[in-house]
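Troubleshooting entry. The earlier prediction with 2-phosphoglycolic acid gave an output that would not parse, so I re-checked the input for stray whitespace and re-submitted. Clean input:
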Amino acid sequence: MKIYSPNVKIFDDDSDVDKYASSFVINQVGSKPYSVITLPTGSTPLGMYTLLSDAYSEGKISFRFSIFFNLDEYWPIKKSSPSSYYYYMNTNFFNKIDSPCSNRFIPNGEANDPNLESEKYNNLLDKYGESDLTVLGIGPGKTAHIGFNEVGSDYNSKTRYVLLSQETYNTNLKFFNKKEDMPIGAITQGISNILNSKKIILIAKGANKAWGINRVINGHIGTDAPASFLRYHPDVTFILDKDASEML
Ligand code: PGA
């Protein structure tokens, strides 16, 4: 399989990371209003969502025709839980823009059967075809996950129910009020869904991403660092702050 060198952009300032990332979304939607865009959650893209919402409020862009897919969602989790990605996306982005509910898709954390829900989500992704743009974060430390594709996730993986790694569980526990509230699993788009996108950007900030970024860009490609499969894609841009790039 052909291996590509990703574009790597490094900024001193976190706000420039946000600006550069949001420019990809704005250019995409500006040139093709009905674009299919896959979006992440986490602390990293919050600045990007603020800039995108601001661009909408200032009348610079409309998201009316864009189709949004989320990368992942915990399972099981109530949509009303402030820790759900459903809640995150609505609060941080969707409620601030003109995207109709019918154009946004997030795996259903309330579904009875996560395997069936994953199959439905794959079918929906297939129905819309490849994403025009996929925006990713990356897991901290040695997880190097994209979505919830933890260590061991294969190149061919599709949307499926997965167990969180111990490291991811420990990192994300702070987003839940009580330990009992935190699911041990999630529904995530697979590596093959992610690679089936015309263009991919990955945003990383902070020193806890430096090992993963270097591993993914300079290490071998394999299931022990699932984000390394991005090097099989011809159009990937890593958008990094100084700290995240310090081991390159
Ligand atoms: P973060 O999460 O943006 O909060 O660091 C990223 C991830 O775990 O994928």
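This one parsed fine. The pocket of 2-phosphoglycolic acid is lined by residues 42-44, 137-140, 145 (CB under 6 Å).
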